[in-house]
Write a structure and sequence with these properties.
The structure holds two protein chains of two kinds.
Chain A (H helix, E strand, L loop, with lengths): L2 H17 L12 H5 L3 E5 L18 E2 L4 E3 L7 E4 L13 E3 L11 E9 L8 E6 L16 E7 L5 E8 L4 E5 L11 E7 L4 E6 L2 E7 L13 E3 L12 E10 L9 E4 L6 E3 L6 E8 L8 E7 L2 E7 L7 E7 L7 E10 L10 E9 L9 E4 L4 H7 L3 E4 L4 H7 L8 H17 L2 E6 L1 H8 L25 H18 L5 E6 L13 H11 L26 E2 L4 H13 L2 H12 L8 E4 L17 E2 L2 E2 L7 H13 L6 E2 L1 E4 L1 E3 H4 L12 H5 L5 E3 L2 H12 L6 E4 L1 H4 L12 H22 L9 E5 L1 H7 L10 H11 L4 E5 H7 L6 E4 L5 E2 H12 L3 E4 L11 E2 L9 H19 L7 E3 L4 E8 L2 E8 L2 E2 L13 E2 L2 E7 L5 E4 L4 E3 L2 E3 L2 E8 L4 E7 L5 E5 L3 E2 L4 E9 L9 E9 L10 E6 L2 E7 ...
Helix pairs in contact in A: 6-7, 7-10, 8-9, 11-14, 14-16, 18-21
Chain B lengths: L2 H20 L5 H13 L6 H7 L5 H14 L4 H8 L4 H12 L6 H8 L5 H12 L5 H10 L5 H11 L21 E6 L5 E5 L21 E3 L14 E11 L9 E6 L2 E2 L1 E6 L2 E6 L10 E4 L8 E11 L5 E2 L3 E6 L1
Antiparallel strand pairs in B: 1-12, 2-3, 2-4, 4-10, 5-9, 5-12, 6-11, 7-8, 7-10
Classes of the chains: A alpha/beta, B alpha+beta.
């Protein structure tokens, strides 16, 4: 249990003890006015013989449901016994029900209370309903889901329980939760909730105040028509409460004992900080939640041995005083208790007058952490186990922001508090948060305006529902949502990434609202061409006057229209720019935004708009090096927006239909997982594919990697994703630990090596001939890319726009798959390229205006996995034969199964090699659709450079090489699915030197320099990975420890000693991770 | 021919010269190619060198020579004619393109030869050139020959050029001159089951009168619509025909402004006849697969009678067929 929760729970127990006074009304069996007074709406006491009666006399009689029974063992006489329901063995709801009547929906304030004696199995329930008249305890944009109230126990993320209330307000609902509650099996506890009819929820446990949540701007609840259920949910969703329930009462108004008290809240802001954070402070909120003024007093704050006092002014009823307690983040990493007490009040030391929380100060992370994003959500422990750096969180109440019409709090204040706690906890675990925002999608579905959805020329809905994203309301809302998130959560360092509208442009369509037609006219100077019906373009064969040589003018009206549509006209790119601007509106410099899948669009720049990063989802089957092809497409797209970066996602899930579609009839022919989960729709990627895909994308200069499919990485409740291969997770963990963590900072510093081979993905051919991979990596464009990889070529994907902007001078080979139709300017550039000796490789569909030098006919889309691969590899071999007399690769492999790729920093090469040698295994191999089992392999890698020394950056050792002619030859053995990263430097690494001053004082900044030596005085022109371990005087690892990149062999560190650091001898140990050489420096701390 | 076998066929054609090239000293072919490129800068004076390049042992050098000759234009006519008989299909393609630009060449004669070429790519190039030429009787004859080509891509291009049915249709709801509310007063769903179905890989079903009302389709297979034909076991890209008789009730009372046949989705192109009367097409290429469309059948439909509905479908990629419902809508 988290410390904060322990404290809160302990506080509640202590308060319960203090309040165990016989005079408290809630402790009594209600009689007379407490049972039937005007304020009582209904009272169920379950007394023997009249168990179903409403003791208030208002006739709200009960009927049992399912196997619930009346029991004589109540808190006061009889009670209702309810149960946890296991849907696997029974399908009937439990509890007791009374039919709906208007009076059960209070018009203003009300109080709900009951006694509960939990059963032991309550501890296993995630949700247990106490009272429900709302039916929907989750957000749903339907009127019927947003009426009345429900009170239930909910599993807190740390394992305990909170008391949660949800209230419906017609258009939407709010939620409020208590502080963590400790319930003991077999012990009666009194639970109460009050709502003041004006936005304030309060919770009580055994009469003790257990929290308050304010819902701004709310009034009375909206009455509904559901029956009132005790002990289960209205609908049969198995929310039955395992326990005995007694004396359930619903009253009008907030009862005097449920009206609040003085409260010190330490949870409204942050409690976890990084060292040396500026302006770090804990927000203390002292609330007078009573009906009387709170006299002026003093507050004492104790933190890390320091105590301070200051005055608190008189607080009117309902008023709050906010206090900012600075946190000395110069302290060494650790946990520091914060204690806050109100002094000088009558009854000093009473409940609510004291509070405490543990403040945590974390060591700063070394710079250059390489993102490993779980595209999904998991629990922190298991995320940490694998080595993820991020996962996805949801932080937006769209309705709230939509109604506000401007940036506002992204969530209800109560919800913000709980999210704040989560974000703090993530920071402590080193798992950052990626917020997922989708304002356009939400507004289209919920904005209530038909203009928000696309229509065809006849005004009818255009195919799949998709927002008319260029609508000004949606553009504004995009900014508002981004800005609301920034304003609400921008202060949490764990939140540093945002995913904007995933998988949205797949569903886009031409749309013809007046504002869209007008926008097109303004942009193009003419109307949308009448032939434009589909977003996919217009096939040239349907255009009677299309030129015979299939060369279109650069200003062809259709081409101009589609270029505009895909760049700006469909509205999504500008909308993403708006969301990005909103998210950055508070000035966080480390916050990044991303869009995916960004290349499920034609090959024209601009996808994602102004986001910082674009990414793409890719399934690894049948050939995992296709991850590299998809990554290259992303770089082509990002080229259009200077500064935009690329991350790459691998799907942890495999479509069953694409890998193992038919369940073998005979059970003996089935794989182990098929016997266990025969109906799995999505299964886990094979471990060797995980390896290959990892190396394939890492061999490109990506700025992070992602994985989707938590339910296939771990057993989870997702209905479709199944966990069918536990080894995959271990492989990913190993790769993160051995490659990403130690080498990540280096990888982020090493650019790509410019290549002289380009692969054109032609936008004009996509628009006029229906071509294009659209990011799916299975079209001919993608297969030809595989051919190039197996031929040891390193292609750069380019668009028409690249040619127009950059020309083709930097290339020697231009590969042109599916380039049926070209623009005049592109044709001219290619002809000039050929005139100066450039080689064109194309297929049978090439635009007649260009004559190819080498033809690679389309192939490889038929047959079983091994047949397809064999055909493509045969094409690769053929291509090598034709190309080699005219072209020399910089990097080569004598084995087509081993795919080389080079990145380069100045004169140092970073040679990656991926072993793609595979066969059918016993996981899905019997279906013959995927060769999922890696095999060992051997290759001689060749680099055409003058010389150098080769280091294996994962093994941290030098690798032998020889010379053959003008090339270096490096023989290597590979394990199944294996990858290698070799650093090839001009000069050998001679050693590593670490220097620090001999003496330093606590609180002082200690400069440490690290130098990797290539000669006596020189350093290599390389980015060298370095591991630094800082050990304090007690021998404990200290801040500064971690992995770094020594750029040009040099690294400078500053160790900011804390005022409470240990005195004595400190050590800084350094190991460069190329050859594994080490050094150490010591200094004395006084 | 499937893609992989096309590949093998081309490989076989290329392998001999490639083997020769591979046996050369490293860089020799590149040097010869570079020499051609440099020579081309001298214009017509380079003709002998470039023509000599057509005989080079390396096909890439040959292709470079052919391209440079084509760039030279009329002076290179003889050399291009030599290239036109090259064993290398890429050289022939390049030569053909170069020759077709020359006025002094018997283009129709060469195109006729090209239709007999062993290379699909050359034949395709010829058909594309024929399609764009003024439609004379001799061109029509050549296109008809191409429509019987062994390669479906070539056949498709020629068939499209010769396709005799076309009708411009503007559905009532899209008529710019129709300034009234349009209401569907009756909707008659076409049955999903009971359709007759035939593949038309040679794209000549219309020549066999498959669209006519009294054509005997009893020997055809049966199929259901509202699903791709792949679901019925037809793993096939190309043209196929659907036929079905439907009972249409008596004409509804009141004013009827139009009767339309509505298709929610045909993957990807469709041509429709009602009682043998051609009523229109949905022909916007592969993008049409998910686009609903309607066609006016006011004059073709017979009320209170059995009506013959015929749909010719073209699918060029992925799944194909009438995969969504069809109905007849009576509009007021």
């Amino acid at each position: 249990m988290h410390t904060r929760q322990i404290l809160a729970a302990a506080g509640l127990l202590a308060l319960a003890g203090l309040h165990a006074q016989p005079a408290a009304p809630w402790q009594q069996e209600y009689r007379d006015a407490e049972a039937s007074g005007d304020h009582v709406i209904a009272l169920w006491q379950f007394d023997t013989g009249k168990e179903a009666e409403d003791a208030s006399g208002h006739g709200h009689g009960l009927a049992l449901r399912g196997r619930s029974v009346w029991s004589p063992e109540g808190r006061f006489g009889g009670c209702l016994e309810s149960f946890r329901v296991d849907p696997k063995v029974e399908d009937k709801p439990v509890g007791a029900t009374t039919r709906d009547r208007d009076t059960l929906s209070p018009e203003g304030a009300f109080t709900l209370e009951l006694w509960l004696k939990p059963k032991a199995e309550l501890a296993e329930q995630s949700t247990a309903f106490l009272i429900d008249k709302k039916f929907f305890h989750y957000a749903k944009d339907e009127p019927r889901a947003n009426t009345d109230y429900a009170l239930y126990l909910q599993r807190h993320r740390d394992g305990g329980l909170v008391l949660t209330a949800t209230l419906g307000f017609g258009k939407d609902s709010v939620w409020a939760s208590s502080k963590p509650v400790t319930l003991e099996a077999g012990r009666w506890v009194h639970l109460a909730y009050s709502y003041d009819g004006a936005g304030t929820s309060r919770f009580y446990v055994d009469g003790a105040y257990a929290g308050r949540v304010v819902h701004e701007g709310r009034g009375a609840i909206t009455p509904g028509t559901n029956p009132l259920i005790i002990g289960d949910r209205v609908g049969s969703s198995y929310g039955g409460c395992a326990g005995w329930i007694d004396q359930v009462r619903l009253c009008r108004g907030v009862l005097p004992w449920a009206g609040g008290q003085v409260d010190i809240n330490l949870r409204s802001g942050r409690t976890v900080f990084e060292r040396l954070e500026k302006d770090a402070a804990v927000e203390v909120v002292i609330s007078n939640d009573t009906v009387r003024p709170l006299p002026s007093c003093r507050v004492r704050v104790e933190l890390a041995g320091r105590s301070q006092e200051e005055a608190v002014p008189e607080l009117a009823a309902g008023a709050a005083h906010r206090l900012r307690v600075p946190v000395d983040t110069g302290l060494k990493p650790g946990q520091y208790p914060l204690r806050v007490a109100l002094l000088g009040l009558p009854g000093e030391g009473a409940p609510g007058h004291e509070a405490g929380v543990d403040i945590r100060i974390l060591a700063r992370r070394p710079p250059g952490r390489f993102p490993v994003v779980m595209w999904g959500s998991g629990d922190l422990e298991r995320l940490e186990y694998v080595g993820f750096t991020h996962h996805i969180v949801h932080l937006v109440d769209y309705r709230r922001i939509w109604d506000a019409g401007k940036p506002t709090l992204a969530l209800d204040p109560g919800a913000i508090e709980s999210r704040a706690e989560v974000l703090d906890e993530q920071l402590a675990h080193g798992i950052d948060a990626c917020v997922y925002v989708f304002p356009g999608r939400w507004a289209a579905e919920n904005g209530g305006n038909p203009e928000y959805l696309r229509v065809d020329r006849a005004g009818k809905p255009a195919g799949r529902e998709n927002a008319s994203a260029s609508h000004p309301d949606l553009q504004r809302f995009g900014y508002d949502v981004g800005a609301s998130v920034a304003q609400t959560f921008g202060k949490f360092p764990a939140l540093n990434l945002a995913l904007v509208h995933s998988e949205i442009r797949d569903g886009t369509a031409l749309s013809f609202h007046d504002f869209e037609v007008k926008a097109a006219r303004e942009a193009l100077g003419s109307d949308i061409p009448r032939e434009a019906i589909s977003k996919s373009g217009v096939h040239y064969s349907t255009l009677p006057t299309f030129p015979a040589d299939r060369v279109v003018a650069d200003d062809d009206p259709l081409l101009r229209f589609y270029t505009w549509f895909w760049k700006d006209g469909d509205g999504w790119n500008p909308l993403h720019t708006q969301v990005d601007a909103g998210l950055k509106s508070t000035g966080r410099s480390d916050f990044r935004t991303f869009f995916d899948p960004a290349v499920r669009v034609p090959s024209v720049w601009g996808s994602g708009g102004g986001v910082d990063v674009i990414s793409q989802w890719t399934y690894s089957y049948p050939d995992p090096i296709k991850i590299g092809q998809a990554t290259d497409e992303l770089f082509a797209m990002a080229d259009g927006r200077p500064g935009q970066e690329v991350m790459k996602m691998t799907q942890v899930i495999w479509y069953r239909s694409g890998t193992a579609p038919e369940l073998p009839a005979d059970e003996k022919d089935r794989a182990a997982w098929e016997k266990e989960i025969p109906d799995a729709k999505f299964i886990t990627i094979a471990p060797d594919h995980m390896r290959e895909a990892f190396w394939s994308k890492l061999s490109r200069p990506v700025r992070g990697i992602m994985y989707h499919g938590w339910g296939s990485l771990y057993p989870a409740t997702h209905a479709g994703y199944r966990h069918t291969n536990p080894q995959t997770r271990e492989v990913l963990k190993e790769l993160v630990a051995q490659v990403v963590r130690p080498l990540g900072p280096t990888l982020l510093q090493v650019p790509d090596r410019p290549t002289d081979v380009a692969l054109l993905e032609s936008f004009s051919s996509q628009i006029f001939a229906g071509r294009g991979s659209h990011g799916w990596s299975n079209s001919w464009e993608a297969r030809l890319h595989l051919i190039l990889q197996w031929a040891s070529l390193q292609p750069r994907v380019i668009y028409d726009e690249h040619i127009r902007r950059d020309g083709l001078d930097q290339y020697k080979v231009l590969v042109m798959p599916n380039c049926d139709v070209l623009t005049a300017s592109v044709v001219e550039a290619i002809k000039a390229f050929q005139r100066r000796g450039g080689l064109v490789i194309a297929d049978e569909f090439l635009c007649p205006a260009i004559s190819p030098d080498i033809v690679v006919p389309t192939c490889g889309d038929q047959g079983e996995a091994h047949e397809r691969k064999a055909v493509l590899q045969a094409a690769a071999a053929q291509l090598r034969q034709e190309l080699d007399p005219f072209y020399r690769r910089y990097a080569d492999s004598d084995n087509p199964e081993v795919v080389p790729r080079v990145r380069r920093y100045v004169t140092t090469d970073y040679l990656f090699a991926v072993n793609d040698y595979r066969t059918y295994g016993d996981y899905v191999g019997h279906h013959r659709k995927v060769m999922e089992k890696g095999l060992p392999s051997r290759a001689e890698l060749t680099l055409h450079r003058r010389g150098g020394t080769v280091y294996d950056l994962v093994a941290h050792r030098e690798v032998p090489s020889t010379r053959r002619g003008d090339a270096m030859v490096i023989p290597l053995d590979f394990g199944p699915g294996d990858g290698r990263l070799l650093m090839v430097t001009d000069d050998p690494i001679r050693g590593v030197v670490c220097r620090a001053p001999g003496r330093a004082s606590r609180g002082q900044a200690v400069p440490v320099s690290v130098r990797v030596r290539a000669g006596l005085m020189s350093t290599p022109r390389a980015v060298v990975p370095v591991e630094v371990t800082v050990l304090d005087a007690a021998g404990a690892p200290a801040e500064g420890s971690g992995y770094y990149a020594a750029v040009d062999g040099r690294l400078g560190l500053t160790l900011d000693l804390a005022s409470n650091d240990a005195v004595g001898t400190w050590r800084v140990r350094v190991r460069e991770l190329a050859s594994g050489q080490q050094a150490e420096a010591q200094f004395q701390v006084d | 021919m499937r893609a992989s076998s096309r590949w093998l066929a081309v490989c076989t054609g290329l392998s001999l010269s490639v083997a020769v090239a591979a046996a050369e000293a490293p860089g020799a072919a590149a040097t010869r190619r570079q020499a051609l490129l440099e020579a081309a800068g001298r214009g017509a004076a380079a003709l002998p060198v470039l023509q000599g390049g057509l005989k080079d042992a390396n096909p890439v050098v040959q292709r470079t020579a052919a391209r440079l000759l084509a760039d030279l234009g009329a002076p290179a006519q003889a050399a291009l004619l030599e290239g036109w008989s090259s064993p290398d299909p890429v050289v022939r393609q390049t030569a053909l393109k170069g020759l077709l630009k020359l006025e002094a060449v018997d283009a129709e004669g060469i195109l006729g030869q090209a239709l007999d070429d062993s290379s699909n790519a050359v034949r395709m190039l010829a058909v594309e050139a024929l399609v764009r030429r003024p439609r004379t009787a001799s061109i029509e004859t050549l296109l008809q020959k191409a429509a019987g080509d062994d390669d479906d891509t070539v056949r498709a291009q020629a068939s499209r050029a010769l396709w005799p049915f076309h009708r411009d249709v503007t559905p009532l709801r899209e008529r710019p001159d129709w300034d009234h509310e349009v209401a569907v007063v009756q909707s008659l769903p076409l049955p999903a089951e009971g359709w007759r179905f035939a593949l038309d890989p040679r794209r000549d079903g219309h020549l066999k009168k498959w669209h006519e009302a009294d054509f005997d389709d009893s020997a055809w297979a049966t199929i259901a619509i509202e699903q791709a034909w792949e679901k019925a076991g037809h793993t096939y890209d190309g043209v196929a025909w659907y036929r079905r008789q439907i009972e249409v009730p008596a004409r509804p009372e009141g004013v009827i402004n139009a009767v339309e046949i509505a298709c929610d989705g045909v993957d990807e192109c469709a041509w429709i006849w009602v009682n043998g009367v051609y009523v229109g097409q949905h022909d916007i290429g592969p993008a049409g697969w998910e686009k609903a469309f309607t066609l006016d059948i006011t004059d073709a439909l017979r009320w209170g009678a059995t009506n013959q509905i015929t749909v010719r479908v073209l699918d060029s990629t992925f799944a194909g067929g009438i995969w969504k419902p069809m109905r007849i809508e009576v509009l007021r």
